[in-house]
Amino acid sequence: MLCKRSSGSISSTSIPPVSRIPLLSLVALGASLSWVGCGGGDAPSDEPAGAAGAAAADAPPQFETTEVAEGVYQFRWIGHNALFAVTSEGVFAFDPISVEAAATYAEEIRRVAPGAELAAIVYSHNHADHATGAEVLREAFGTDVPIYAHANADAPLREAGNPDLPPPTTTFDETMTLAGGEIELHYLGRSHSDDIAVGFLPAHSLAFAVDFVARDRFGYQDLASFHFPDMFGAIEGLLEIPFETIVFGHGPPGDRAAIERQLTYYRDLNAAVRDAVEAGLSEDETAETVLMEDYSHWDRYDDWRELNVRGMHRKLSAAGDGEGDEEGEH
Ligand SMILES: [Zn+2]
Fold this sequence. Notes:
Layout: H1 23-32, E1 63-69, E2 72-77, E3 80-87, E4 90-94, H2 99-112, E5 118-122, H3 128-131, H4 134-141, E6 147-150, H5 154-160, E7 170-172, E8 175-178, E9 183-187, E10 197-201, E11 206-209, H6 230-240, E12 245-248, E13 254-255, H7 256-278, H8 283-289, H9 301-319
Parallel strand pairs: 4-5, 5-6, 6-7, 11-12
Antiparallel strand pairs: 1-2, 2-3, 3-4, 8-9, 9-10, 10-11, 12-13
Helix pairs in contact: 2-4, 6-7, 7-9, 8-9
The site of zinc ion has 7 residues, from loops.
């Protein structure tokens, strides 16, 4: 997979120091967001994006906007994250998340970038729990605001015909540059779905990647929508992009090491379950014996470890070649 960058290569000296997040602040940011993903609001489509749910007294606020680089913000709504960037051509906003979230998202964009126009909406992928709500942003900023997405997002959204989740107005296949190269979109192949657009902001060495990677967190439930072995190539492709900080669709931001750990996890899961399949273990037996204990400190270990193992068992059993790949439901 090529990860061409149209704006030329970056050297470390070309990155203004002010735009880089000092390690300490990144750690602090991660710490302050570390509850994201294990908090309330668990009422899923792909992952929960709905009502706040029954909030405990010490529950985090329903939403939060955090500056992750100069002029670049993570917008968190319950357990989902979006990213928006103030560029020379206006604001580019990834993932409206939901109708309800998008109303607050619009207010937050106005609050941190008063007077700025919304240049475009970008879908990280077509799943409703991240992409719903574009019309709310358009009502707030202008009904002609374009929507960018990977080409594979177009057909399912046209087919679904959901007015709250309109199809993209412009699509791309491999890479696309926005705002004169301030933002790049990269397609890295099939992973969590077949239409993931990874955002990259070269001047900030910052990436935005949704659902196929996260920081120390298990994959969603039984990995039904995930494509293996293509996942490995997608994560390797992500590591070819020269980011230093990465914002995820769920959970706290991470760094390159977080992506290395994510790749190692899926390789370990794949290998352990393949061994079990080759030894003739049933799905139930595999779920009882492949405990992935090296990852017991990861987010969602208690509820998604077993489901990850079961899902991988199904993929490998179905494939019959030790690799595994199948079309999954969202
Ligand atoms: Zn998804």
